[in-house]
Write a structure and sequence with these properties.
Elements (H helix, E strand, L loop, with lengths): L2 H5 L9 H13 L20 H9 L9 E6 L7 H11 L2 E2 H4 E7 L4 E6 L1 H6 L4 H9 L4 E6 L2 E6 L5 H12 L2 E3 L6 E6 L5 E6 L3 H4 L5 E8 L2 H8 L1 H18 L6 H12 L19 H7 L2 H11 L8 H7 L16 H9 L1
Antiparallel strand pairs: 1-9, 1-10, 2-7, 3-4, 4-6, 5-6, 8-9
Helix pairs in contact: 2-12, 3-11, 10-11, 11-12, 13-14, 13-15
């Protein structure tokens, strides 16, 4: 490693790294366009991009609007399409409503007849008997194959509302696949190997599937990654997602600033947002908390509990017009008594 590479991340003592990082990310994010994405009829995995994704990450939303995964295959599998297709078949969550051609509901007898689409059954390599088997396991429901259709009946006759709820639950029943993965697509790398991208995320179940590279599963949900791999992996994911989102907009922010934000969000061992419910709201300084949002609430709470402000941070010192403890304000000058005596003698 060269001397330049060793020193490129060196920070001068007293540097206001937090303020500089906030300015660097904030200035670029204001250039982003607020885009909305309409998913209907799109034959690809839908993801949140641009400013909405940036806000989603910094606010530490527990459920991303469009969770996605990228799943790599093991060495002996990644170049064989048929084996990858077998794994794909185990991934996509296929519900009864995805296979239906027509549904007839009879509220008088609390029964429904589901006509299945042969083309969809063939596409997902399923049979009507497999669907009946899944429905038969539901509590309070009887299912049987009636010709080319499935007849489903509630064991107890209840009101229309309860019957309707039962019908909806029947159509939402998973027949095959991993819960949470709404769509899966097989894609090919430049070297001819295959991988799978998904709309929806469930790392825990995906890692159990044979043929999946356990070190090559990527999810865009930091909370899921933290639960499976730990907070350090979640920190790397947040930093990588922030950097990727900004780069996709044609903007540039040094990784030092993004890494610092990701560190601040995760150093306690959990993922916290940068707003009033996280980093900004957890500051020791009353004035710093009040300067961000909900000013009156913070002052009332501080007065009720007798809080004291030590004036050690940046925001609170700026508010009262005191020199901050960064930059030149970090240096304390003192003159020895002997030197004062010598100066006075002159």
């Amino acid at each position: 490693m060269s001397e330049t590479e060793k020193t490129q991340f060196t920070v001068v003592p007293g540097e206001a790294v937090g303020t500089v990082a906030a300015q660097s990310i904030g200035e670029q994010s204001t250039q982003m366009i607020l885009r909305t994405f309409h998913a209907a009829g799109i034959a690809s995995v839908v993801t949140t991009k641009g400013l909405p994704r940036l806000i989603e990450l910094i606010d530490a939303r527990k459920k991303p609007k469009f969770p996605t995964m990228q799943i790599s295959m093991e060495k002996g599998v990644e170049s064989k399409y048929e084996k990858v297709r077998d794994i794909w078949r185990k991934l996509e969550d296929v519900k009864v409503k995805s296979l239906k051609l027509n549904v007839d509901e009879d509220f008088r007898t609390s029964s429904m007849v589901i006509t299945l689409d042969p083309e969809k059954l063939s596409f997902f390599e399923l049979t009507a008997r497999q669907v009946v088997s899944k429905l038969s396991k539901l509590e309070g429901v009887e299912a049987e194959l009636d010709g080319g259709a499935i007849k489903v009946k509630a064991k107890k006759k209840e009101g229309i509302k309860a019957t309707r709820t039962t019908f909806v639950n029947i159509l939402d029943t998973s027949v095959s696949g991993v819960p949470g993965i709404n769509k899966a697509l097989i894609q090919q790398n430049d070297d001819g190997t295959y991988y799978i991208t998904t709309s929806g995320s469930n790392m825990e179940e995906v890692l159990k599937i044979d043929g999946v590279d356990k070190k090559g599963v990527y999810s865009n949900n930091p909370f899921e990654v933290a639960r499976i791999y730990g907070v350090e992996a979640a920190r790397n994911l947040i930093a990588n997602e922030l950097l990727t989102t900004i780069k996709e907009e044609g903007l540039t922010v040094s990784f030092r600033h993004i890494g610092l934000l990701a560190d601040a969000m995760t150093y306690t061992g959990t993922i916290r947002s940068a707003g009033r419910h996280g980093i900004a709201g957890d500051k020791d300084s009353v004035l710093a908390r009040a300067a961000y949002e909900e000013t009156v609430k913070h002052f009332i709470n501080a007065s009720v509990f007798g809080e004291k402000d030590q004036l050690k941070g940046v925001a609170e010192n700026i508010l009262i017009g005191k020199q901050i403890g960064l930059g030149t304000g970090r240096i304390k000058l003192a003159v020895k008594k002997e030197d004062i005596k010598k100066l006075s003698e002159k």
